[in-house]
Design brief:
By secondary structure, the protein is α/β, with parallel strands linked by helices. It contains 8 helices and 11 strands. The radius of gyration is 17 Å and the shape is globular.
Length: 228
C-alpha cells in the first residue's frame, strides 16, 4: 500500500496538480509494478481541498470532509491517467459509488485488479467524514492484505522534531508504534497508527519526491524510517 499526500502532487506550483511531479510518480510506480510488485495506492486531496481547513473557514465539517473526498478522486483520476499514458494498467475504485468515474470499491475487486497486474488506486478515503486519508490508507491496506504501508512524503523519514524547523532534529531508522504515540510524532493520525499496530501492518516513511527512492524502498534499502 502506497500512501501519497495530495500536497506532494503540487510540486513547485503551490496548488493543484504539477504534471511533471505526476509523471515522475507514475514512472516510479510503473517501475515497481512491472517488476511484479502488487501496488495499491491511496492519495490525499490537500492540494485541492482539505476538509479541516474548510471547517475553520465556516464550512460544515461533514460537507467539508465530503469535498475533501472528492478532491482525492480528482487526484486518483489524474494518477491513473498518467500511469496508463506510461503503459501501466490502473483501475480507480471509489469509497462512495461514483460510477462511471470509478468502480465502487470492494476488497475483492481491488485484489482482483492487483492480481491482474493493474495498480489499484483507491479514492474517497473511508467514505465517511471525520476520518483522514491516512486512516483510509491503513484500512484499505489491511483489507487488501498488504505486506507494508509505504508513506511517501517530502521528508526522508521520521525525526525527533520537524527537520525543516529544528536543525538539531535527529532521524530514526526504526521506531515502534507505541513510541510514535508517546513522543507525539506526527507520522500518521492516531487512528491510522492504531489500525496498523492492531493488524501488524508495518509502515515505512520515506522521501517519495526523490526519483528512484520508491524502488530503493521496495528493494529493502534503509533510506526511510520503519515503524513496527
Amino acid at each position: 500500500m502506497l500512501k501519497l499526500s495530495g500536497e506532494s502532487l503540487m510540486g513547485e506550483q503551490g496548488y493543484g496538480i504539477d504534471t511533471k511531479r505526476l509523471g515522475e510518480y507514475a514512472s516510479q510506480i510503473k517501475e515497481i509494478a512491472q517488476s511484479g510488485v502488487e501496488v495499491a495506492i491511496v492519495i490525499g486531496g490537500g492540494n485541492i481541498f482539505r476538509g479541516l481547513s474548510g471547517t475553520s473557514k465556516g464550512f460544515d465539517r461533514v460537507k467539508g470532509d465530503q469535498m475533501g473526498m472528492l478532491a482525492t478522486v480528482i487526484n486518483s483520476l489524474a494518477l491513473s491517467s498518467a500511469l496508463e499514458a506510461a503503459g501501466q494498467p490502473a483501475r480507480v475504485f471509489t469509497a462512495i459509488n461514483m460510477f462511471p468515474i470509478g468502480e465502487h470499491y470492494s476488497k475483492w475487486k481491488a485484489i482482483e485488479a492487483l492480481k491482474g497486474g493493474a495498480v489499484a488506486i483507491i479514492a474517497g478515503g473511508t467514505g465517511n467524514p471525520f476520518f483522514t486519508t491516512d486512516t483510509g490508507s491503513a484500512l484499505r491496506g489491511i483489507e487488501v492484505e498488504a505486506d507494508v504501508m509505504l508513506k511517501g512524503t517530502r521528508v526522508d523519514g521520521i525525526y525527533t522534531a520537524d527537520p525543516e524547523k529544528d536543525p538539531t532534529a535527529t532521524k530514526f531508522t526504526e521506531i515502534t508504534y507505541d513510541e510514535v504515540y508517546t513522543r507525539g510524532l506526527k507520522v500518521m493520525d492516531l487512528t491510522a497508527t492504531a489500525l496498523c499496530k492492531e493488524n501488524n501492518l508495518p509502515i515505512v516513511v520515506f522521501d517519495m519526491d526523490t526519483v528512484g527512492n520508491l524502488k530503493k524502498v521496495i528493494e529493502g534499502e534503509p533510506i526511510g524510517t520503519l515503524v513496527y
